[in-house]
Amino acid sequence: MTASAPAPERILQRVDWTIVRRLDGLLQGDYRSLFRGNGVDFADLREYEYGDDVRHIDWNVTARMDTPYIREFVEDREITAWFLLDLSPSVDFGTVESERQKRSVLVEFVTTLARVLTRHGNRVGAIFYGGGVERTIPARGGRVQVLRLINDLVSHPRRDSAPFTDLAPLFEAGQHWIRGRSLVIAVSDFIAVPGWERPLEGLTRKHEVIAVRLFDRRETELPDVGPILLDDAETGEQLVVDTQDATFRRRFGEAAERREADLAASFRRAGVDTVSLATHDDVLAAIVRMAARRRRVRH
After folding, report:
1. Contact (CB, 8 A) for 72 and 44
2. 102, 110, 194, 279: least buried by Cβ within 10 Å?
């Protein structure tokens, strides 16, 4: 890795060496556990076995052979993937303990998946949301496309504060810009005003959608460290709270649990697959967990 390389090149080199190569080994090339293709092709017939999907039974062959037969299919592996990226002020949150902001985790995660996809001949595009929809990168393939995505991410301006995030325009932009059936990966902390659920659900009617939820554990639990100054990343407001107050810590935790439950219910209603990615998480481990989860769901 060359220190003189431009920042996007250095980021991509680091991700290649520290994550992508290891991911190749852990998944043993089985990226089907991460992504579906855009369609399926008929491959063969075989006798039915216990546990097979009865929807794949070929009734004409079954009648002729007097024993159940099912159709086997292979997936068309060509994928167009779109990243819908929340870069609002709350994504710049990160505690000293985590040593990483949610934005840093977002960049590493998106770089990794974009690199994995384009190495296998697929195309990636992105829509950036800050105070509104601010940038669209058309879907293309190749290493240059990944470098452009990284460059636009690291150079995207940060806002000190903004009105509360409204993610609905981001998902509506996805409905407008993404034409053919695609893999849509929405990466956000989902700290937003209500109303984004319906346009997210609209995306699932046409596309395979994965919601990647970023979080820092200090957003859900407070340590007992005495008085601290809290910043609202969205509005810039500051508030001094006493974390030694057990009642305050309990109420904070209860509010966080309600927020988590509401968010999980919203994802279920929208019918999207979800992945949680914390600032203290190892991105490689998170992607392997995502692959294992998606493999179980399919089987």
Report:
1. yes
2. 194
